């Protein structure tokens, strides 16, 4: 737990232990290598256990961090997908409504155009009829006077 996997030499465990202890303990007076054991001064084993416990705690926190990140990322992606789906349907609905209103407006303009033209033709024909009747009466009066 206290070393990197690159530092471990399976063939020579004594060298591996020396590398680990050299990395952790700076003072050579605090430990001594025997033939089959390592002897530590008072409190050094507790210090190394504390380092080991801290490293395991840090590894646990790292695992929790990555797992929580995974959960929240998946939750975010689900929410994002649902939001995009709702936006897509809403935008489609709004676009269809807008096109429907544009078509209704265009149809209303065509109807207004035809109705206004018809009203003008009716007004013009009535006016022409009235004017021709007035002209006919006036000409008749003048003809009778002459």
UniProtKB/TrEMBL annotation:
Xref: Pfam families: IQ
GO function terms (MF aspect): actin filament binding; ATP binding; microfilament motor activity
Coiled-coil regions, chain positions: none
Keyword ATP-binding set for record: yes
Domain called Myosin motor: residue spans: 1-53
Superkingdom of the organism of origin: Eukaryota
Listed InterPro entries: IQ_motif_EF-hand-BS, Myosin_head_motor_dom-like, P-loop_NTPase
Keywords, sorted A to Z: Actin-binding, ATP-binding, Coiled coil, Motor protein, Myosin, Nucleotide-binding, Repeat
Gene Ontology cellular-component terms listed: cytoplasm; membrane; myosin complex
UniProt record, GO biological process: actin filament organization
Family: Belongs to the TRAFAC class myosin-kinesin ATPase superfamily. Myosin family.
PANTHER family the UniProt entry points to: DILUTE CLASS UNCONVENTIONAL MYOSIN, ISOFORM C, MYOSIN
Protein name, per record: Unconventional myosin-Va-like
Species name: Hirondellea gigas
